[in-house]
Each structure stands twice: as C-alpha cells, then as structure tokens.
# Entry
Amino acid sequence: MDLESAPQWAGLDPGASDAEEVRGLVAVLVAADSPRSTKAQVAGFLLDVWCLGVKNALAPEPMSESRLAGHRGLYFSAYEGHVQVPAGLARALVFGAAAYARGFGFEPEWELAEEFTEAAVLLGEPAGPSPIGFGRDGKPFFVNGPYDDPEAVLRTLRRAVGDEGFHFELAFPEEPSQRRRLFGPRL
# Structure
C-alpha cells in the first residue's frame, strides 16, 4: 500500500506490520455517534490492500464506550496495536480497496456484500477515486487465506493482467475451508 499520493496522511500507515499473518491485511473499525442513542454505531472491515479488497465486513452494532474499548482491543489483537486515522483515510482505504479488487474482477459474495453495504453507511459516500496506491510494488500480490480458492483467484488475475501482471504466495496450500468463504471471484 502506498500513501505517497496522499501527503495529508503521511506517517499514518495503518497497514504497516511485520506480523507474518497480517501481511497485506488492514482492519478498519468505524465508530459513529448515533443521534437516537448514547451508544455509538460500530462497524468493521477486513481489507486485503494487496489484491482482493474487502475480505470481511461487520454490520453496524450499537456499543457503549466501555464495550467499544474492549471490542477495539479484540478487533486489533492480531496486529501490533492500532492507529487512529481520520475518517477520510478510513473511507479511502475501504472504498479504494474495494475498487482496486473490482478492477481485477473480484467482488464480495452476496452475504459479505450485504454486510459491506450496511457497514459502509457509517463511512459516508466515497469522495472520488482513492489517492492510496493499492497492491504491492505496483502489482496485485495475492496471499491466500484459509477461505480463499487460490486456483480461482489466480485464474481471475491471469485473465485480468496476464501471467506477469501479479505476484502470489500460497500460505494455505490445502483445500479452502467450506465453512464460510468470505470472498469469491466474479465468474
């Protein structure tokens, strides 16, 4: 992910982590005041900023301040802490990652698409094209997760950008789990 075209966010790299299990993954947690309640509306997104875009979304849920604090710690537990970023950066990350993946033919499956739509309401409307550079070193870089179908993803990438237009690494070489696939290529 490249923030070079977004100097207003210099130094705020929410994707910076040396942890092997979260390479290319950015978790975004959004909390918005509710006009009808003392509780905040909280939604979340798991983004693959290197290739697949939106991997998961959590629809808005009302939370008290104390519950939100506990939820935040759990939500970012795979990371080396979290970075509080402006709403504009969160919006650019989420909508930009979705648009980047869509450009290669990747769309969230129906269940995820529904939750994404509900959660995205808290972000507001996208403010035009994202100034963030997605991918890794200028190309999509696919690292499969346990719910991805590597063969289908690689086939989709080859159709979109050819054999030399992307990089990949198979982290889970076994068959994808059928429990709950969070992402599917557009066929």
